[in-house]
Amino acid sequence: MICLFDRYDQASFDLLRSLKATGLDCPVVVQDDGYLSPDVESPYSYFTGDLDTPEEKVYFHNIGYIYDYQRLNNMNPEALILTNSDQLEQIEQLLTQLPNVHFHIGAITEMSGHLMGLNRYPNVSLYPNIRPAKVAELFERCDLYLDINISDEILNACRTAFENNMLILSFKNTCHSRRFIADDHIYSPENVSGMVDKIQSVLAHSSEMEAALARQKQAANQASLEQYKAIL
Asked: Which keywords accompany this UniProt record (predicted)?
């Protein structure tokens, strides 16, 4: 048996120590080793540094999450954007600089005239009032997700893209979920050329795509079944 906790914070850590004091004899895994404060790099190290004995230190483990990926990335030159506004950071520059990539832009509401005007570009498809079946189809079809809408995230898009092995790219002012996006895949709005270069590189070279997806999974604190088996 393993006792699982989702994250490290003082309350959960105090509870873990209380459980240990009652005689709980199974390994304790706290999965999220994410951000704590500017001065603390690792919550796991921060809290376990106060443990009293080597036995206590061995008792706690920092192992990440096992994700249920739905499919492989096939390097299709198609990018998905889901939005609830007509403000998409650098969208026209992306459309013009990546003519080989087809952009699918979906909204769960009507689209403004500004957004509908993107129809003038040959490499874009617009989906106002997008239906759930079409959303699912696009997540299966596209291998890039661009988190570039300047408003709230809709439809849990970043996590769904992550679980579909889509490479997720974003801008600093639009990023909705750093948990599922590698730091070097988040660009300043002025560095749209950096995003363009990354997209061209991963679509041209499978090794680049594999490396980018590996960094993305590392950012999401991915773990393996073997890591869990090792502590049993």
From this structure: Transferase
